[in-house]
């Protein structure tokens, strides 16, 4: 059955973290009418499919949408995040997005919510319930927020063969598993695998009964350095300054990463293995210490097959048995498509505009869409920052972010928006700290001025030195 067209100023395809942050800014900062469409029944994107023990790995204070706080702003007093800003659980995040939908978007009277719908290439919303088709018309822009959809084990199965009789579970299934196990085999080296390892250890599993297949070692960020609260203003700025000074003075790429690690800016689980991955994952130092308790680590590449008595990998095989529980943690995470201009006439393609900041980036893109600028000016202020994959992306993300920040600094109206943005947080935090006239703050600011240009220039040199010479 075909329904009449549904027209709005903006059609936002995807109600995950990016789509929700973007729609919230459109509705809060203008009188725009929005159609918000998603193939899931509820807002929140991949959080609907995530494992039960999932939590944010960055502070709740800078996640979600601009118009509504996530969490209470507390500092955790117990656990592996003790002394740091709270981390929302998956259940809390889903509840939060439902409240954003109900209390902010739908309550405005200007948002039409279409859950359980796909959108085809012709711009027709197709119901996944009854197949009804409804053309969508955007009088101003289409927003493709679907490319930010994260791949998780519950929705993206293993890319290796699993023999009959082998217990291979997703992290979600692991929580509900009640049969005895001789041991556990974690497959994957990313944040899902880290979370699963911490969950097992937190449930009293002997670390010597855990085998961890890590195809790649990862650099991870130290959560202590990304704390957007007043007590952390000085150490947070100090971390930013240290990054630039270390880059400025690094004689080589290897020295850069060695010094970043020594300064506790980057971390790795195994200090004896050179990381080949960087995905913006964040760990506390207490979490890192827990993960280091697992000593049975396999580094023979990716799993190709799990058979009843062995696991076949790229560069060898290891023994297993049907009494082991294998946990699939090797889904792709955030897709890394090619970067493209964000503003494309009738279409907006949200991407990062600041390193490791998906929701801030989405809100900022929406703010630019509502500005009186033209698309050339908007794109000049929102050059995409790459989704990270390898250690060199630490440099790329810094350089692309710095380019955008330099452009933003020339526009007072953007600086004012940053000061009032919950998702940006650091501008207001640093502004308040500067008013307190602490000599240590003035010294940090002076060091920042001395290090910024030279540090960024050296980052660019180090990156060029690592890339193949043009033919």
Task: Report on this structure.
Strands 1, 2, 3, 4, 5, 6, 19 and 20 form an eight-stranded mixed sheet that branches. Strands 8-18-9-10-14 form a five-stranded parallel sheet. It has helices spanning 17-29, 90-105, 171-176, 191-202, 233-249, 253-262, 285-291, 358-370, 375-381, 392-409, 412-419, 426-435, 439-466, and strands at residues 6-13, 34-37, 111-114, 117-119, 124-127, 133-144, 161-162, 167-169, 183-187, 210-213, 218-222, 266-267, 277-283, 296-298, 303-306, 310-313, 316-319, 324-328, 343-344, 347-348. The longest helix is centred in the last third of the chain and has 28 residues, at 439-466. Helix 2 (90-105) links the parallel strand 2 and strand 3 (111-114). The chain starts with 5 loop residues before the first strand and ends in a 5-residue tail after the last helix. With 471 residues, it is of the alpha/beta class. The chain has 13 helices and 20 strands.
